[in-house]
Amino acid sequence: MINSTSESSTNKYHLPKRIILVRHGESQGNKDDTTYSVTPDYKIPLTTRGIEQANQAGSRILDVVSGHGSSENWKVYFYVSPYVRTRSTLREIGRAFPRNRVLGVREECRVREQDFGNFQVTERMKVIKETRERFGRFFYRFPEGESAADVYDRVSHFLETLWRDVDMNRHHHDPNDELNLVIVSHGLASRVFLMKWFKWTVEQFEYLNNLGNCEFRVMELGAGGEYSLAVHHSDEEMLEWGMSPEMIADQKWRANAHRGALNDNCPWYLDAFFDHSADSNDKEGEDVKSNNCIDLPLA
């Protein structure tokens, strides 16, 4: 929950208009699984196709942040995973942006790929991934590696830093300009980022599909001050990502909701955890309900 001091400070600089999550382009590992057995994951490069995808993504992202050419006062700040394939993706994306539009770039280790262990023997990894499907994608921890839950924890820490960066204006953002934050990362890190932000449950996460190479998700600030995927993306797109109708309805509500408002129709804030909830007209019951309000998850 944002306290009054933090909210006042943030209003001074204004919130980013958009936060855009981008997956890297096609890597040699995406093309050939055996690459992981001879090359450290963080050193795996993009393929020629991946470079082309990243270049095209730069043009598409430019189109989004410039309002299809209608905005004159936009700026962009990048965060990037330290892996070779994400840094190479950023390099190609960056070719689309005039230098005077880029406020800065920061390498951020906490949005790196899920750790699957060190060198990955192909046949062994096939068995391990089959086991993960039986166990559950979120909680399964790779031997000598991480679970998605571990990635969730470090991405949560990154979100706290991201909020402080906005709150303290570390982006050196002129409040008269539209600030766009672009995070060039990996598929799972992007999904858990969204999970954390929108308070999706583990069950909801399990149904989410991975982003394609150089696909991106646009969280845009709605008219009332909440971020929503529905401002930029269609219902059909969100369904393809594995979002349920209830999740999509929440995104559409957020597109016009006032910051801090309560979405009474959001089932996973209360209804999903109880078989029934007794009605109450007393103040104690009202207090319980108020504690389920939606807040900006960066704090």
UniProtKB/TrEMBL annotation:
Segments passing through the bilayer: none
Superkingdom per UniProt: Eukaryota
Entry-linked InterPro entries: His_Pase_superF_clade-1, His_PPase_superfam, PG/BPGM_mutase_AS, PGM-Related
GO molecular function: catalytic activity
Pfam family, one: His_Phos_1
Record-given protein name: Phosphoglycerate mutase
Organism per entry: Anisodus acutangulus
